[in-house]
Amino acid sequence: MRIKINRKVFLVFVLSLQFSFLGSIILDCLGLEVPIIRQSISFIYLTFIPGILIFGIFRDIDLTRVETFLYSIGLSLFFLMSLALVMNFLYPKIDITHPISTYPLAITISSITLLLCCLWYLRNEQFLTVVNISINNPILPYIFALLLIPFLAIFGAILLNFYNDNTFLLFLIALLSLLLLLAVLDKVPKETYTLVVWVISISLLLQATLASSYIAWGWDMTKETSFSALTTAKGYWDSSIQWNINALPSIVLLQPVYSILTDLNIIWTRKIIYPIIYSILPVIAFQYFRRQLNDKNALVSCFYLMVFYSFYTLLSRNIRTGTAEVFMALVLLTVTDDRLSFFQKKIFSIIFLISLILSHHATSYIFLYALITALVIHTLLRRLRSYKTSTRTILLSPTYVALAMILTISWYMYTTGSTGYNTLVSFSYDTLNTIFTEFFTPKGSLSKYFQEALPLSIQASKYLLIISTGFIVVGILDSLLDLISNKPLKFQYEYIYLSMAFSVILFTSLYVAKFNIARIGHILLLLLSPFLIVGINRLITSIKFFWKYSGTKENKSSQLFASIFLIILFLFSSGFFSETLIKGDDYAPHILISKNRIMSSKTITSIEAKDYLYKIYVDDQDFASSRWLMRYKSEHINIKASAYSYLVRDYRIVLPEGKAHIYRAIENIVQTLKSPEELKDKKDSYIYFRCYNFRDSIIISKPYEYPINFINTSEFLCVINKEGKGNIYNNGCSRVYI
């Protein structure tokens, strides 16, 4: 069956979706709420429609290409962020005091979208897309089977969250591993590779975000949620608050826009909408990987990107870094897309660069460092080799690099009291100081990797990642030799130079303690992961075991070896081996899958596992006690809380239902308990204990330090009794004293 979509049909579809979007909001305001309808329609409308219209204004739309929808999502996110930013500063001048609220957002977005419709309609007189649909298509059974896997992830996460049963998630991990192996063995049609990548991506993300009911993963995540909730509650972005996160429209504007217009609170926006958007990252990477290598090598490279543990643990919750990664990947997709004209590449690469800058300061700085380094390497090699190339470049253009520098520094210098710019300056100074004075010292992160005593699963994951880095180095050196010796390149011209720049950053990050290797490692893999299989292939070729590598000919031995290697890495880092074979006191980076075993363990040797778990997991009773304390506490009495009491420290996210009340600098009124002696202070203070303090009879005295230092809870209770402090809240698990 052939479906012809001309410009009138497409325009009717867009307008119908827009009226449905506005209608669902009006019905909700009238009290005629229909579950899921507003959420679904609003998400589809906001995520695809503005972007696809903008894309169509610049070039013809081909609705049969995956890239069209990837560009559309990126352009829609840019549209929402930039429009909300303009509204935030312009509307108060015309007496609209709450620009980031339902009516101003809905009316403005729909009006601008209507204007885009008109421009698109005039620009695309000859628009016609033909979609072929056949129920006899042999790949349909594969498509339907693949689409069932994310539902397995959702169901498994719910079981883990409410019933402490990880059986379905363990099955999911095994199934995703098997899926890669089947693809490499040609048991999965190549036409479904893009869907395979997305299914693995969304499954890993949803099983992580839905495995708990609250936001807890570290100080940054709760702080992100707080600033998003603050904008939602106030109805505008307060740019006067001097904090790095407050300078990021991806947090303070984009998340509130989705939350308000989909009628989901901030917490569920983070847990559902963000993972869906972030899940396109490996799909984007797959598109530009396959332009460098063949489809199967690109699939293996994408699997490496997805099973790198921070993808489905840390970055599944860290919105600013994840969103910035999406825009960085879109920049790479743009400059490697031969179907775009040079002018279109310049326009889209600048748009996605701006979006990257508005998403995360650290990722922007990394990309800026990479651009500068790549330009320097490119200039030096050209002068040393005295060769010229006819290839027109964008990322290696001094103009583009200068623009990136100006935009990055300007934005973070003139927003939120220059906190982002100050971070750039101090971080750059510390990095250079470390490189020249602390190489391979105990302060460096490289030596730290080999000094820490870690559980088997994390230790194995660590060494497998180090080995994979070695494969990447071999792959980069092999490509560099091809470049220097003027041999045919396996990778596109700009891709090679930017990869060399990312390699420099990789080597730097390995021994500079202030680099968070979990985050920066994944960012670097956006370019470097294809070099894993190139390096493996080069090693196999060099020892004369298998065929000589060809950029267009598949080497099944290399692919099979790489797949098995990555599957083993995945089974260790995901906690599969920890839960099925090792058990005991072992745990993996994906520690939530071991939640029940760790919480029920009474052995003192599992203190590190408990410390790691309670950084990211919050009991229902902890949530209830935090909400009670923040609702009824006196404004003039400070709080002394046990370690990792994120909900107390960031109470804006829990009053009420994830919505903020008013911003307060609460760092000075919340003190982390480190010693029972602190309770002898005669000044009144609330003393807050989480559930784990009584369940495991421990209080972590020095959080975020290794080895773990803890004190028995009974020592604190003894001081509390001697000082005559009273128990004012007890829900059978968490307690508050004064």
Describe how the helices and strands are arranged.
Layout: E1 2-6, H1 7-29, H2 37-58, H3 66-90, H4 102-123, E2 128-132, H5 140-163, H6 167-184, H7 193-209, H8 218-234, H9 249-262, H10 266-278, H11 280-290, H12 295-307, H13 319-335, H14 342-359, H15 361-385, H16 398-413, H17 419-437, H18 445-451, H19 456-484, H20 493-509, H21 517-528, H22 530-542, H23 556-573, H24 576-582, H25 595-600, H26 607-616, H27 620-632, E3 638-641, H28 646-649, E4 670-672, E5 685-689, H29 691-695, E6 698-700, E7 710-712, H30 713-722, E8 727-730, E9 735-737
Parallel strand pairs: 3-4, 3-5
Antiparallel strand pairs: 1-2, 5-9, 6-7, 8-9
Helix pairs in contact: 1-2, 1-4, 2-3, 2-4, 3-9, 3-14, 5-6, 5-7, 6-7, 6-23, 7-10, 7-11, 7-12, 8-9, 9-10, 10-13, 11-12, 11-13, 12-22, 12-23, 13-14, 13-15, 14-16, 15-16, 15-20, 16-17, 19-20, 19-22, 19-23, 20-21, 22-23
